[in-house]
Structure formats: structure tokens, C-alpha cells
Design brief:
Helix content: 40-55%
Order of helices and strands: HEEHHEHH
Length: about 190
């Protein structure tokens, strides 16, 4: 059965990276870090932690909080470890960028890098101390105090969507070098 979609055969992958793809990766990461920093600055200047702002009929609340832990406020006693993990993520992405030729992969990796770096800026520079800072979170879904879903920020959203996109690209067989893996059925059929 034909679907009308013409698939290109897998060819020899070009060597090296695409300047365009790497620029996309860096641009997306920089945009995420900037939007995250600006939104956190606005949130800390305008929101009262004791008075959440109800939006969209209660589907979204702006609830200022500070998170000493990781996602879902886990591992609060290990705040100093998170900048080290983020540095590891940045090194891993730089390693992967050596063969990056795919714009969708550039988008995924840029979102992941920007999300990791957005939160690490808080860890390094926010109170209570350098490398022990608490991350500013302020989006809460369906409940003003994070009871329905953990409170999050722009960096968390970028990181989540970047990981989802990366998993989707892997499942679809899309490679960082722009090629596509062929399934067993395509090879033998």
C-alpha cells in the first residue's frame, strides 16, 4: 500500500557538521536562556508568593516559588550537583554537535541546552548562595500551589519539549547527521 509519501533512500552521511544547524542550536539555546531570565525577572518583581494570579479560568496560575531541588522538587539537599550535571549536558550536546546536520535535531538539542542553562544560571547566581541557588518557578497548572502538577518555568518547558522532540526523532529514525535509519521492512520489502 502506498501512502503517497516518497521516501529518499538512505545515502552516505555527509561528514562534519552543518553551520546552519549549529547556528540553530545556539540560537534556540540563547533564546530560551534569555526568555527564561526575563520571565523570572518579571515574576520576582511582580508576583507575590502569597497571592497566586488565576488565569484562563484556573487552568493556569502564576505562583511564585523557589525550588531548591530538581524537577518535582526532588533532591533538595543536592543543589550543588545540578550545575555539574548541566555542565555535563552542555559537553554532551557540544560533542553531539560535531556531526549535527539536522535542523529538527538542532531544535531539540537547543531546547535541552537552553533549558539546562536557564536553570543553572539560577543555581549559580541566586540566593541563598553561589552554586546553591534556588530556581525560580512560577507556572502552576490547575492549582495555585502545584498540587495538580509541579510548578515550573520557561527553562523547564524548553527542556521537556526538547527531550520529547529528541525521543520522537529517535523513534522515527531521524539521525543528527540528517539521514534516516531504514526499518527492517524497508530493507527487505
Amino acid at each position: 500500500m502506498q501512502t503517497g509519501i516518497q521516501e529518499q533512500p538512505v545515502t552516505e552521511a555527509p561528514r562534519g557538521f552543518s553551520r546552519r544547524a549549529v547556528l540553530w542550536l545556539g540560537g534556540i539555546a540563547a533564546l530560551v536562556v534569555t526568555l527564561d531570565a526575563l520571565s523570572k525577572e518579571i515574576a520576582t518583581k511582580t508576583l507575590d508568593p502569597d497571592e497566586p494570579v488565576k488565569l484562563l479560568g484556573g487552568a493556569l496560575y502564576l505562583s511564585l516559588t523557589r525550588n531548591a531541588g530538581a524537577a518535582f522538587s526532588l533532591f533538595r539537599d543536592f543543589t550543588m550537583v545540578f550545575p555539574i550535571i548541566a555542565l555535563g549536558v552542555a559537553i554532551w550536546i557540544a560533542f553531539m554537535a560535531r556531526t549535527l546536520r539536522s535542523i529538527p535535531w538542532a531544535l531539540a538539542l537547543g531546547l535541552i541546552l537552553g533549558g539546562a542553562m536557564g536553570n543553572v544560571v539560577d543555581r549559580i547566581f541566586r540566593a541563598p548562595a553561589p552554586f546553591q541557588g534556588h530556581v525560580v518557578d512560577f507556572f502552576s497548572l490547575f492549582d495555585p500551589h502545584g498540587q495538580a502538577f509541579p510548578i515550573f518555568n520557561v527553562a523547564d518547558m524548553a527542556l521537556t519539549f526538547g527531550v520529547i522532540l529528541a525521543v520522537l526523532l529517535e523513534v522515527l529514525g531521524r539521525q543528527r547527521d540528517g539521514t534516516r535509519l531504514r526499518s527492517r521492512d524497508e530493507k527487505h520489502g
